[in-house]
Amino acid sequence: MTESLLDAPPQQALVLEAVSKTFPGMRALDDVSFAIHRGSFHALLGGNGSGKSTLIKILAGVYQGDPGGTIRARGESVDPQATTPAWSRRAGIRFVHQDLGVFGAMSVAENLFSGHPYPRTRIGAVGWRSMQAEAARVLARHDIDVDPRRSMADLRPAEQTLVAIARCLMDADEGGVELLVLDEPTARLPPTEVEELLAALDRYVAGGLSILYVSHRLSEVVEHADTITVLRDGRHVTTRPADGLTRAELATLIVGSRSQIAAKRATRTIGSDVVLRVEGLRSGPVHDVDLTLHAGEIVGLAGLVGSGRTHLVETIFGVHRPREGRVSLRGRPLRPGSVAAATDAGLAYVPEDRAAHSAFRSLGLDMNLSAADLHRYRRGWLRRPPELADAQADIARFAIRTPGVRAPFAQLSGGNQQKAVLARWLRRSPVALLLDEPTQGVDIGARAEIYAQIEEAVDRGTAVLLVTSDLDELLHLSDRVAVISRGRIVDEATGDRITRDWVGSRMFDAHQEES
User: Where is the ABC transporter domain (predicted)?
Assistant: First the structure.
């Protein structure tokens, strides 16, 4: 019988055993077990949707896991369903997220003390001098050469990150910190500042601090981590020493076997007509993007979180007004920054966050289905009988499981909500369809039904631009795959070149090359 991690000697800063997390229609973590040793620079790796963020949120007490597993820190065990922010703090776990949570208009000293009691004078007023003196001591202890009186907004990104880390470690001297969790701390840093931050982290580890480090930059992991844990599709793949691992080997661990290729749909003949053309598009993080979609073609857009993929599809749909470039549909330029112009021309968009950007949760299913096509039912007033009849037809066509046609949208499961959002747009027979994570949070049965509807639309001539973190989905649906990194299309492939290994390696390699 395999020895439990919980029976191991107490040199671990954190032990997780059989930690799982289930959302409606999706198992985000599945029986994950590993340990983080004291004084370890431990990297947590995985592709988009691997479960890294879910695991971190359970440790932070933002999410509660499924019952039955165990998390142990400082000799105290807790069921994953019982984690809270208060427990996390007692366990000595501190977090620095990609959003640093700093206040640009406040001073460095004020930022350091946010979340900590302010020094007080004898009469109870804030002791500003004492605060600045203590802040100076904290900064000096962490070798951060900035004036505590400076505005946080004036600091370089690396300095802001170091101040955020120092804030987490302010109670370390009293034994308050066991583990520092860093989520993509170098993602927003220019290359010249990355080594500055990593050198500081190496010093913390040498001083006995444990670090759980999440990053897509594999060279950082190879050069600085002593241990790596890889998650894939919510499952634990491996925990092993980082010594001797190459970037190529890490990429293979993250994306799966080199020989593993998802079953693709039947090869079809792609039309020669270009229905969607993007030329020289610049908007936000997106730079100089050229892209074409042909009638009846599915183009997969592969990229890591922060690559600009969602911003690109939003700009194409008119959510953002581009600084340069243009988008044309059937040879006619779309008015920049106009969702109405895009939809009128025949463009449709299913966003990643349906709850925030695509659903009217308090309204009925019938009204959600007709939301993009209300003009069909207006004759000076809203004609409800044909609206309800069309809703019933969509419910049957898309196999939407619902208590009734007027059931509140919020009562539907995640998969049925997603099918309804897709049905809303497909009833318009769009020229081109933009899909951002179309099966996120959807169970396997609903996923197959969504695939069937997408493929039926494509067979009728609709062009599809597909953003997905699911490599199996990307491989199954795409006729062509474009890889986006740092806002630029860096590579494309068609046919047999589209393999799991090619997609994964190009995403990570391009991200590294841009770094």
Answer: 14-511
- Domains parsed from the chain with CATH numbers: 1-92+178-255 (3.40.50.300), 101-176 (no CATH), 257-346+431-515 (3.40.50.300), 359-427 (no CATH)
d(CA 328, CA 345): 10
CA nearest 41: which of 222, 212, 229, 247? 212
What are the tens digits of pLDDT across the range 26-39? 788 999 999 999 99
Q: Are 414 and 342 in contact (CB under 8 A)?
A: no
Q: Where are the alpha helices (DSSP H) in 106-151?
A: 108-113, 128-141
* DSSP type of residue 377: G
Q: pLDDT tens digit string along 289-315? A: 999 999 999 999 998 777 899 999 999
Question: Which contiguous run of DSSP H or E holds residue 310?
Answer: helix 309-317
**Structural element, H or E, at residue 332:** strand 332-333
Q: Specify whether the CB–CB gap between 426 and 457 falls below 8 A.
A: yes
CA torsion angle for 21, 24, 27, 32 (degrees, to 10)?
0
pTM above 0.70, yes or no: no
- The yes-or-no verdict on residue 447 having pLDDT over 80 is no
Strand stretches in 215-263, DSSP E: 227-232, 235-241
In the chain, % helix, strand, coil (3-state, to 5) comes to 35, 25, 35
Please report, in angstroms and rounded to a whole number, the separation of the first and last CA atoms in the chain: 45
